[in-house]
Amino acid sequence: MEVKEPRKPGGSDGSELGETARQMRAAQPYVSAVWKLVGGAVVGVLGGYWLDGWLGTGPWLMVVLSLVGICVGFYGFLHEMARLGKRK
Amino acid sequence: MFLPSVLAASNLVKVQPGLIFWTLITFVIVAIVLKMKAWGPILSLVEEREKQIASSIESAKRERAEAEKLLADQKTAIAEARREAAEMMRRNTQEMEKFREELMAKSRKEAEELKLSARREIDEQKAKAIAEVRSMAVDLAMEVAGKLISERMDDSKQRALAEQFVQGLPLNGTSATGAVRRTA
Amino acid sequence: MRKAMVLFASLFAATAWAAGSEDDVPGYILHHVVDSPSFEIEVPLSAPIHLGEIPPIHIPLKADGCALRMTDHGQEVPGLTEGCLDLSITKHTVMMWLAALLLMATLFIWSNRDKTKLVPRGAGANLIEMLVLFVRDELAIKNIGKEEGPRYVPYLLTAFFFVLFMNLLGLVPWMATATGNLAVTASLALCTFVITQAAGIRAAGLGGYLKHLTGGVAPWLWPIMIPVEVLGLFTKPFALTMRLFANMLAGHIVLFFLLGLIFILGHPAVALVSVPFAFAIYLLELFVAFVQAYVFTMLSALFIGMSVAMGHHHDDHGHESEVGPSHDHGKAHHV
Questions:
Q1: What is the value of pTM for the model shown?
Q2: Chain centroid to CA C83: how far?
Q3: B162 or B179, which is more confident
Q4: Is residue B182 part of a domain?
Q5: With a CB-CB cutoff of 8 Å, which residues 206-225 of chain C face chain A?
Q6: Residue B7 domain flag
Q7: Which of A80, B49, C78, C138 could cysteine-pair with C82, CB 3.0–4.6 Å?
Q8: Which domain holds residue B115?
Q9: Contact assessment for residue B55 and residue C118, using Cβ atoms and an 8 Å cutoff
């Protein structure tokens, strides 16, 4: 994916933004990356639990899906961090 | 005493779908009504005021600049006028001086001319007088000589002689008199 | 002034005494902060006056879905998952409507002034305009930006004043705090959520928005990644919901607990301490009402701004064709 210097929204240089807004915007990609890590596990566990209840397959789908979720989350996290590192 | 209450506390975090429904309806209605009736007018008023203030400041700035420019122009104009007046004064004085000098020179020249013409007149009169005196002297000499040599003398011969004599007289009056005396 | 305070305090104490005579303090507290379908007015030194109930509105989603059933606590209406939509007008619904009406009335009275004069007259109009300008300049512009901010000002203003009026209404005697109800705060957060997503779609274009939902990973990982990202979208409105709800609820619980302390300790002298404390908390709550309205609006603006920024940031991934239309928005149409 091609990465350029981020353009500021709407032609404004963002100087009017408050300190909180600036910091939150700066932190957003990292928060999003961390959420991928956590969310992968959460989605895996919850999704597996739900599928187990639906299909009646005992704990197996939950175990498998949590592992898959953790792996995907970890991959997504690394992927995002690599992209963020490249932008610097 | 506490247990049923704690159980009832689940009511605290119970989400009633009906209330969600009513809240959404109410919020959307309030948002639309206020957007049309309150925020629109208030915001447009505020924006208009801001625009007006900005334009007032702008025009005040412009007017001030204009006034300053006008003032500067005025100042230059006054300085120019003053300079011109001074220049004129200076030129006037100069002219007056020149005029005076001219006048002086003219009167001096006239006086000179007057003097010269007077001298010429004097010379002329003097020459005339001398000539007159000479001719009178000739006559006088002839008369004296005729009387002296008892009359009989060729008139024209006598005259030539006398003239020759007078010719021989110095131009100067005094020496002429002397010559006349010597001849006599 | 001191006399008024003493009067106020004794009124509080008497109210508490009347309500707390059942000697069930937690129940007394819950009774005052939890929504209920019945309306009543408490009169000091006498039993509360019941104003009755508005007939319940039950919409069955399946045949006979709303049949009442018996439980340990008496009759109960089945929940939404059991096939009954309960649209009954409850205490908090009425409070919310009251707040909405008060809000609209206030704004109509104080914003409908002479349009030829650009300067507000009177304390009310000035206060309204001050708050409006605060929301516009300090919340919208500072969190969303100069370009995109003005578009969301009407929404933010409505959210701010609506929350503020509900908060303040809860502090009026005999009224209840609608913002201390999870359903109300969740709905408000849902509105912000919708606006936030709409802002994201506006800024990035639908393609860019959906692309962001895939988390930027290979397509075969999407079945896991899309639920993760979608779940992530809901963390912010969830925080918004909980913050407002917990703050408004906590203050009132503390207030009623301080009064209930008189009955827990069982001596009227406790009132000498707890009533002034309750009064102080009440004043604090007045402040909190404004602060929480501010925080809710500020966070809404912040989330909208982040969504807008993310959308514009996504323009930078080389989709130049998407940049044109998404930037071609005039300022004329507001949300």
A1: 0.72
A2: 27
A3: B162
A4: no
A5: 215-217, 221, 224-225
A6: no
A7: C78
A8: 16-151
A9: no
